[in-house]
Design goal:
The protein has about 300 residues and is α/β, with parallel strands linked by helices. Helix content is about 35%, strand content about 15%. The protein contains 11 helices and 12 strands. The chain has an 8-stranded mixed sheet. Strand 7, helix 5 and strand 8 form a beta-alpha-beta unit. The N terminus is likely disordered.
Amino acid sequence: MSVNISPSGHTSQLIKSPAAGEGRRRLPEWLKVTAHFTPEYFRIKDILARHNLHSVCQEASCPNIRECFGAGTATFLILGNHCTRGCRFCDVTTARPLGLDLEEPARLSRVVAELRLKQVVITSVTRDDLPDGGASIFARTIELLRRQDSEVKIEVLIPDMKGKEDSVRTVLLARPDVFAHNVETVERLYRRVRPGAVLERSLAVLRMGDSFSPRPVVKTGFMVGLGETLDEIKELMERIYATGTQIVTAGQYLRPSEKHLPIEKFYRPDEFKEIAAIGKEIGFQHVEAGPLVRSSYKAFNQSKDLLGVK
């Protein structure tokens, strides 16, 4: 069983148009998937609540939560559920975090054992309030997971940690199998989409992963539908490739609420195929692109060949 975010399980929703008087418009047909609540969905939700753990599926209002929970999967969110940044695409709560939960890694390790997981994805909120950005908690979590099962495959999706090399190195020294950090959008849109973040800093984090020995699989992801052009997407992918990154994911931005950035465009499935083709032509070893693709979508299907896992 793997821990990831899958591409479907999405319910129809209404998105308010940014233009006054334009009213409401429905999602395109290719983004509509009927939701199913299964006993496994409620089991996973109960286990996370019982151990006071968070999943990015819940905190970020991921559209795939029902299918993923129904399949017994989830992406773990550590370092609490309050983020110190206010990215305008994200539904994770922006607030001053309340301290640091040093017992969280142990609880997560116990949950992985309870769920009998062999493949784990761990991400976090951004913790600019911490000197190391939360790197020590990432490292401790990886350590305890390895202690529980030396064969477990671990993917981490880290924030930029303000680009501090010592913090990023702390995570890398714990030897995750897959090291991921998302660039999220093209450079022109950073100030509007990711205030507090810088594209070059994110690319530097990916370069750190590529240059580390022993080298993990390096991965990133971005959204489309925020006003970028195809030329900007190609340029972004070329800059990502230059960092040594092997895996890239691309998915449709879906507006969590009316206070978040509006959707400028719904990309068609054939346009995602074009993005994937561009990525393959550039040279990426794996490109996952689709309307409901998220960073952890089929995470270990993406990386298993690079990890030598059957």
